[in-house]
Amino acid sequence: MVTLGDRIKLARSKAGLSLRAVAEKVGLSHTAISKYERGIDTPNSAVLLRLADALGVRLDFFFRQVRVELEPEAIHYRCRNRFGEKARQRVHGEVIECLERYLEVESLFDEPAPFLKPVADFAVKGLDEIENLALALREEWDLGTDPIDNLMAVLEDKGVRVCLVQGDDGFDGLSAWFQGNCPIIAVQRGVPGDRQRFDLAHELAHLLLDVSPGIDEEKAAHRFAGAFLAPEPAVRAELGERRRALDPYELYLLKHKYGLSMQAWMHRARDLGIIREDTYQTLCRRFSRMGWRKQEPWEQVPEEEPRRVKQLVYRALAEDEISRSRAEELLGEPLVEVVSEAA
Questions:
Q1: What is the dihedral sign for C-alpha 223, 123, 159, 235?
Q2: Which of 43, 190, 231, 261 gives a 20 to 30 Å CA spacing to 338?
């Protein structure tokens, strides 16, 4: 059973606030907040309103009955060293809250999106094998070798729940399983689309690949992400079999065609033997000199956005299954107002 204390604790975790920080915002002691979270005491309606404001949630959040837990042994974080435990808890809270809304919206129509795990054997005994594994997944998902226009839409269609979280500069992505065989991937919002897509494909690799001991799992996931977004036949068709140099603007055009960064294209060319190691290193030095390692030049690839939850919420609203306030609570944002047609 989901308790009010559970909901308060989740909201605090999602907001990344300590007991003392919440207490200061609400005007109570941290002991009182702790008692609420542990179910020893119950806040009155006025305190609940102050808690909702302090924690950045709607009042309805505290009474949601859907509860979900990620399988601890199956959670993978892709983050950097400065991503501390407090930030990790905040991301975990955001993902849980996002997933709860996801499942609650699906329950309105009793239409869960089942994940049909690919039948191909994704055992990895060597990094070069990953090229064929990426092609096998594309074939099973009927993607061919063309660029993927919207990776989030593809993943949601295949039963992967996709969430955007605020995160911070130390966070790239999270993947996990829940309810046995249901996958979720979370990536950071507000970043260029090519980084977002690479993180999605990287986390997909962690869900699917069975990496043998002795092989670096992160390198395997990196290789899979590049191979899935720009499969080998497409790369060879675009770049040719052998190159002595690659032009930055050529890489920029390919970046926007495939949604894969310029630097990832450099990696692909090296991994497939299209350019030599010294050519690759020359390109890397040029990117460093120009300041392109952190931000690549020219126009950025637009970020993507999950659509399944929004689509189902607006469907429920159109069919009078939920109220406007309920729709906004499930979306976590205001409804889009449609301008009335002129009479």
A1: positive
A2: 190
Considering only CA atoms, which of 247, 241, 252, 237 is closest in space to residue 276? 241
Q: Which two tokens stand for residue 224?
A: 């899979």
pLDDT of residue 66: 66
Strand partners, 188: 165
The Cα–Cα gap between 124 and 141 comes to: 20
Count of C-beta atoms within a 10 Å radius of residue 80: 10
Q: What DSSP character marks residue 75? A: -
Question: Which residues are CB-contacts of 212 (< 8 A; sequence separation ≥ 6)?
Answer: 123, 124, 125
Q: Select, from the ranges 74-83, 135-144, 330-339, the one with the highest average predicted confidence (pLDDT).
A: 135-144
Burial of 289: CB neighbours in 10 Å, binned 0-12, 13-18, 19+: exposed
- The two tokens of residue 292 are 């392109």
Instruction: End-to-end CA distance of the chain: give it in Å, rounded.
Output: 51
Cα dist. 13→93, 97, 112, 181, 207 in Å? 5, 10, 27, 26, 25
Between CA 204 and CA 160 the distance in angstroms is 9
In the beta sheet, which residues pair with residue 77? 174
Q: What pTM value is reported for the model? A: 0.86
Positive or negative, the Cα torsion across 27, 32, 37, 40? Answer: negative
* Of 11 and 218, more confident: 218
Contacts of residue 253, Cβ cutoff 8 Å, sequence gap at least 6 = none
Record the tokens describing residue 95, joined without a space. Answer: 């993902």
From residue 261, give the alpha-carbon distance in Å to each of 155, 196, 205: 20, 10, 18
Q: How far apart are CA 185 and CA 303, in angstroms?
A: 16
CB 289 within 8 A of CB 297: no
